[in-house]
Amino acid sequence: MQDRKLPPEVEAELQALEVLSDDVLWAVARSRINLTKHRRWRRLLEKRQQGGLAEPEQQEFERLVADADRLTVCKAQAYQLLKERGHRIPELENGTNHRAST
Asked: N or C end of the chain: which has fewer CB within 10 A?
């Protein structure tokens, strides 16, 4: 696996998660991308696959992808911190979305 360095602002965000309460970490871990952003990303993706995007649309698409990537990294870090604090983390396959602590 290739090591990729995260942007400094993302690193700072991940470090900030370390001092948050468990309840806030659960909220981060369960968070989802805004529905409006998701719909816009989907439209731009479809347009991109059907022939391309104008430059402003391409930039918007890249921002939306970066936002989703950032959210994914923060969610993963929140789950990791919760696990380190002794919480059981729901399995992805079963879609469990409840809080389970040991």
From this structure: N
Which region, left, alpha or beta, applies to residue 100 given φ > 0 means left and ψ of -120 to 50 means alpha? beta
CA distance linking residue 29 with residue 78, whole number of Å:
5
Tens digits of residue pLDDT in 14-50:
999 999 999 999 999 999 999 999 999 999 999 999 9
- CA-based radius of gyration for the chain: 16
Q: What is the pTM of this model?
A: 0.78
The label of the residue with tokens 């604090």 reads 85
Judge whether 57 and 44 are in contact, CB under 8 Å.
yes
What residues pair up with 87 in beta bridges, in sequence order? 101
Which tokens belong to 15?
A: 């470090």
**Residue 88 three-state SS:** strand
